[in-house]
Predict the structure.
Amino acid sequence: MRRFMVIPLAGLLVLGAAAPVLAGPNVSNTSGSGKTIYGEWSDAGTYGYVFLGEETGYGGFGEIYQESGEYVECETAPVPPEKDAPIAEDTTPGEEFYGFLGTRTYGYAFDLKITLSRRLETGTATGSAELFTETVDECQGIYGGDAVAEIVPITVNVTGVGSLASFRGSGHYKIPSEFNGHDSYRGTERQAAGSVDVGSIDSTFDSAYMSQVSWTQHVNN
């Protein structure tokens, strides 16, 4: 069974905690919380994923990606992409070369509101997204660059499956007479089933999870 862990995310969220509440000239105490929903899907040449989050002091954010098409045999080696562009798939053995032919849709969610039930039985995320769709033909050296942008609503619904898992952790960093800091976090996560509806993307997840985490941090320098 695939297992999802959100501890690395929790560490990042600790760094992005809310503005400190001063307890003294060089002492600060912070706390905050975060929620996430992740889902991915694939079917008949289509692969995509959505990652959405909401955290204290920063609101909601997210990333959406979908690739739809196929890898086809090129008559000659694919034209090399420009810097930072996707690299065509080159198969061995022999002199056969393959490149991707299709579309790529990607973008970012904003103004998100994520709602999770206490034990992660259900979860929803609603907001807006800016999506870009590009046409790709790697055999001909076309790696996008013709992106069409659109602002669309996004809705994600998930239902928890399997057992509710919990996690917790803490950290401590000290420089004698200079700095003393410690933090702790705890949360829950659960695998899920669900779907995403955003622009031209209307897909059911093959795998998904949702999680929630809270943290506290103390710094004395």
In short: Residues 7-220 form one domain. Confidence is low (pLDDT under 50) at residues 1-24. The radius of gyration is 22 Å.
